[in-house]
Amino acid sequence: MARTVVISGGGTGIGLAAAEAFAADGERVLLLGRREEVLARAAGRIPGARYCAVDLSEPRDADRAARFVAREYGTVDVLVHSAGGSGRLEARAGSEDPLEAVAHDWTLAFRLNTLTAALLTEALEGHLATPGGRVLFLSSIAAYRGSGSAAYAASKAALHPYAHDLARRLGPRGITVNLVAPGYVEETGFFGDGLGEDRRRQLIAETSTGRAGHPGDVAQTLRWLASHAAAHITSQVIQVNGGAERGH
Prior knowledge:
With 248 residues, the protein is of the alpha/beta class. It has helices at residues 13-24, 36-44, 59-72, 98-124, 142-145, 150-157, 159-170, 197-205, 215-225; strands at 4-8, 28-33, 50-53, 78-81, 134-138, 176-182, 236-240.
């Protein structure tokens, strides 16, 4: 029987690749995100996919997403948290005060990467399939070693203890909770207008595999963690970065 897979940030990048991977297995996919036109375009290329435009950093919108899921699907088998970002695509701080800028950047990072995941999870907790549900978070190599943006790194690292607590809470219901920590992944909008070639070469050189990651690398890891084969894996962080976290 087809499962229901809810993917936040499913309109682009890793989220979209995950949606395509699950849909290829015949799963029912629901895409969540802020930009309706992006979601509509993504859903149009995935057989059977639907979408709901919501700002998951807002409690009211997270609740609206949960009510949509309950009404249209009833149960969530797989919940993938791919919404988030570096903040490069967001408005900059409106003040020249350096501390105001710090407050803006840190608040933004936690709203984009941490609060979105926590609000959606809490809103959908009662609708997760019991047993067999899967909750999957997108962390980052930055959670382990920084990234040049302490706010972004901290906001991803904050997902780890939340996921571990959630795994203990949901484990008795037969629900697993895991995280995937990508390194440098091309073909996403993470870097905004682009990454300089020198920096790109540096990031690739840090890997043991000698190549950049692709959205499909992460999507297939999420697909496996959501499978029956991974039923006894929970409260884990799976590194998908070509060994870059270990360094050279």
